[in-house]
Design goal:
The chain is an alpha/beta fold. Helices cover 30% and strands 26% of the residues. The structure holds flavin mononucleotide. Residues 12-16, 57-61, 94 line the site of flavin mononucleotide.
């Protein structure tokens, strides 16, 4: 992870939040004096020049809706360790209209 230039995170929505396995990964990665430290003006991320792609999949909970408790958290925790160049690929709401959601996600990937 510290060696990687690019992170690709595939994230399912579980109960309006991130899966426990992803949270466990965060708890291993976000460590004081390793990936962030406390500077004079507050905490600072120690990872530099990394880019993250986060693919979000869900049954019905839409990215950006009032019950999206995951995307802001993922953006925050990555920024906290210094990864601010984050692109979300939205494949949320697959249970509503699978074809449309997958087509949009594929389009976003091709555009990248
Ligand atoms: C324990 C569990 C909780 C889930 N909670 C949500 C949820 O809150 N909102 C939602 O839209 N989908 C939810 N899902 C559906 C998953 O996001 C979905 O299964 C996942 O994106 C993978 O898609 P697939 O099942 O089509 O492979 C949940 C699935 C599981 C197993």
């Amino acid at each position: 992870m510290q060696e990687a230039d690019i992170l690709v995170i595939g994230l399912a929505v579980y109960n309006f939040s991130v899966p426990a396995a992803f949270k466990a990964w965060i708890d291993q990665v976000v460590r004081s004096k390793v990936t962030f430290h406390y500077a004079e003006n507050g905490p600072e991320g120690l990872l530099e020049n990394k880019k993250a792609y986060v693919v979000i999949a869900s049954g019905g909970t839409q990215v950006g809706s009032d019950i999206d408790f995951f995307s802001a958290y993922v953006r925050h925790i990555l920024a906290f360790i210094g990864i601010t160049d984050v692109t979300f690929i939205d494949s949320s709401g697959i249970g509503r209209d699978e074809k449309k959601v997958l087509a949009c996600a594929n389009e976003a990937i091709v555009a990248l």
